[in-house]
Amino acid sequence: MGLNIAYQLKRRNPDHSVLLLESTSQLGNGSSGYSTGFLRAYYSFDETMRLALDGIHAYKNWARYTKLDNPEVYFTHTGALWMLGYQKQQNVEMQGRLAQFGVESEVLDEAAFVKKMPLMSPEPFPDYDMETGELREKDYGDFSAVWEYGAGHVDSTGALRDLLDACTRDGVETRFKTKVASITKDGDKVVGVQLQDGTQVNGGTVVNASGPWFQALCDSVGVTCSTTSLPTRIQVGHKMIPKEYHNLPFTADGWGASGIYFMPRAANGQLIFGSVAHRFESEIVDPDNYNTNLDPDFKQDYLRCLFHRLPGLETSGEIVGFSHMYTVNQEDVHPVIGESAVKGLYLCHGFSGHGFKLGPAVGSMVAQQITGTTLKDDEFETTAPLHYLAVDREPLKIKVKTHFA
Questions:
Q1: Which end of the chain is more exposed for a tag (fewer CB within 10 A), N or C?
Q2: pLDDT at 196
């Protein structure tokens, strides 16, 4: 997130002095570096949909956005299948919302799904009592899903490297292995940051975009928000797959008692899978001390859901995985973006798994807030409401709190 903000600040005024401080020795040690890089328009709120589409536009036109002659990143189209257990009418409403933003989609009944996705089962994942092992009979209604055209993915670590190249070219100073210990202020105005080695770095504007580590810096100046965001452990698995599975779409599977997503990475022959259910996203952790491996019980739960949906997929073979963190907004799984009660201190956290896909648009949003300057007729300037995700906002009213909300 910091790279996009720095880059967007320089885009509106090359004379801005922009310093980027990274606590580790390399890019990608935060949430963005571990992102699957999936990009989609399907969101619960129109404002977030606008922000997402503005971000996607940058990723799909990455060379123009970064102005790099040979960027590392390219967009891979997969489409997205949303089978979240919603009935047809709710999916038709989503189709209408997507259409308002120029996104093509289809609502699939079971017959259309089977025809379009012959490798997938349309059966709802059965619900078992975890204590007794007994099947709990449920009527899930008729099958219905949304197929979203235009969705896909990019390589997140490659995007970070490209952005660093663009920022360096444009005069952004980046310091690695430079940990910020606290933010400093004079009265109600920010005056800079103090580094862990005691060095004071002065600046009239500070952006706290430190992901799961944001809270300690906010605490250093007594800044609070109207919502609570916490570092939450997220687990992801990888499995090698044969070529016939390489053209699968990104799939969010909440049909029945399932709660996973999966998507192919044809370039390396892998299927990536993770969670869309709260039961997989509830472990609050210390961002400096947590288990970075994939838990055996989570892996088995994921695999039961995966092999149910893809019954022909070979069950043998090594499963590798990792865990990292999202900073999850506990009230509405949406980020907090804007100026705090300390003048000149901007917060940018709580992305709840949305951060990478929104990055270029959030960079534009924060740069507009800081400078008061909107680039006219600029294709990479977001038109989302600038204060929609403000620090002191009321929590958004949301039905399902997952990072696919």
A1: C
A2: 97
